[in-house]
Write a structure and sequence with these properties.
The chain is of the alpha/beta class and 321 residues long. It is built from nine helices and eight strands. The radius of gyration is 24 Å and the shape is elongated.
């Protein structure tokens, strides 16, 4: 397996350096703030730091259970830095009531680094941002590679292309009332050629803590589809980058339930939209589902809500008119 280019956020020198620097700054800050304080004040600060750390760890624990993630425990570093980050915020508040801008500046830097370490530990767990470059690409939210406006498609039909395009789509929610983000469709080069038969479609579904664009930015799904198309005369499935969660932190399990009617949206709104607007094959055998869990690991979806969407999961077949 090839390694991703760029500075890694999952291993290597950057996460370790951030943790070491944060720990040193926090120790210096604590010693600086408390060295001349009265014993009673020291006790108060320590108690507040412990209470803040315990509350933060408790909230994270409850949040993981609420999202049904307790069976996939995070690394121990996440618990440690959650507590340390909360304690750093307490020291930040304490520094605000003490004189001296140098103490306050040090407290701000230490608190920011401590919170950053919490994020690095969470990212190590879910693998959301593999590198600094990919993190910046996601956070800057620039246009996707090969993205075109839907209104430009009519003028592109009947042309010869060597690469596909990505089109943002606004799908309805009048049936499911499922609030979702912008979804995307990848159209392979063959889609633009005249006389092309109805192409199969592959619905790409991410897990919790993802967005539909993750398949494109960090998963390189469009690059893989273009590579496949070049080896098959421009033919490739239409890729449908679906939003099955509606938000970054909402685990619907691709079913209809208290977190939203995700299955209804995928099968009764998104799929018909792609069929009617982009001419994808309508038969179940023309549709496949590719999914990733919360850790980014591949899995075939077995959601009962998607049973009539799946013809052959992950292996859609072409249909000739």
């Amino acid at each position: 397996m090839s390694r991703r280019a760029g500075v890694s956020l999952l291993e290597g020198w950057l996460p370790l350096t951030a943790q070491l620097v944060a720990a040193v700054l926090l120790l210096v800050l604590a010693a600086w703030l408390l060295r001349r304080a009265r014993p009673a004040h020291v006790v108060v600060v320590v108690v507040l730091a412990l209470v803040g750390a315990g509350a933060a760890v408790g909230w994270v624990w409850w949040s993981l259970r609420d999202q049904d993630l307790a069976t996939d425990p995070p690394p121990s570093g996440l618990w440690v830095w959650t507590g340390v980050g909360a304690a750093a915020l307490v020291l930040l508040v304490v520094s605000g009531v003490r004189r001296g801008w140098s103490r306050r500046a040090l407290a701000v830097v230490a608190a920011v680094l401590a919170v950053l370490c919490v994020g690095l530990q969470a990212n190590e767990w879910v693998g959301y941002f593999p590198t600094v470059a990919e993190a910046w690409s996601q956070l800057s939210a620039g246009p996707l590679p090969d993205q075109v406006d839907p209104t430009a498609l009519a003028g592109m039909r009947g042309t010869s292309r060597t690469a596909g395009v990505v089109v943002p789509i606004t799908t309805p929610d009048d049936i499911s009332h499922f609030t979702h983000r912008t979804e995307y469709v990848y159209l392979p080069p063959a889609w633009f050629a005249p006389g092309t038969a109805a192409l199969p479609a592959l619905m790409m579904i991410g897990g919790e803590f993802t967005s539909p664009t993750d398949w494109i930015r960090t998963g390189k799904a469009v690059d893989a589809a273009d590579t496949y198309a070049r080896a098959h005369g421009g033919l490739a499935p239409i890729l449908v980058f679906a939003d099955s969660t509606g938000s970054f932190r909402n685990d619907t399990e691709c079913v209809d339930g208290p977190r939203g009617d995700a299955a209804t949206h995928l099968t009764d709104e998104l799929r018909p939209y792609v069929v009617s607007h982009f001419g994808a094959g309508a038969a179940p055998s023309q549709w496949g589902v590719d999914g990733r869990d919360v850790r980014g690991r591949p899995r075939r979806h077995r959601s009962p809500g998607l049973r009539h969407l799946r013809g052959h999961p992950g292996r859609p077949r072409p249909e000739r008119r």
